[in-house]
Q: What sequence folds into this?
């Protein structure tokens, strides 16, 4: 798999105004919903973990690069249900724990089904969660 920076479509998406605006909106909604705290930290805190840290980054649950076309990549990038507000430490740990290849292999069938619904012009379901993770307040009820 190519590095993120090697894909010109990926680079154009994450540096564009649409992504910048959506990222800002996600951070604003997280401030309202979670007091600005990291979604993963909040979940761990509720389970007896340490005090949550401030969310500073936005994570795509299903990686943008999972899309096979620019249209699919954009659908993944701009899907509000595919986003999490995280602190930099949780964001790094999440990628380290799961690894890009592991995510793709573990979720390939779900990702393909999700992308098929995008191709067909309907979104019948939300983005799949990552293995072993369920975040309160994430996605539609």
A:
């Amino acid at each position: 798999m190519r590095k993120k920076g090697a894909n010109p479509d990926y680079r154009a998406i994450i540096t564009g105004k649409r992504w910048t605006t959506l990222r800002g909106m996600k951070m604003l909604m997280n401030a309202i919903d979670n007091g600005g705290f990291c979604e993963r930290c909040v979940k761990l805190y509720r389970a007896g973990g340490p005090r949550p840290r401030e969310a500073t980054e936005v994570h795509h649950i299903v990686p943008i690069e999972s899309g096979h076309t620019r249209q699919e990549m954009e659908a993944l990038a701009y899907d509000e249900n595919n986003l999490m507000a995280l602190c930099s430490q949780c964001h790094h740990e999440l990628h380290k724990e799961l690894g890009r290849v592991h995510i793709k292999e573990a979720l390939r069938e779900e990702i393909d089904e999700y992308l098929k619904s995008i191709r067909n012009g309907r979104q019948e379901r939300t983005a799949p969660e990552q293995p072993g993770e369920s975040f309160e307040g994430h996605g539609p009820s």
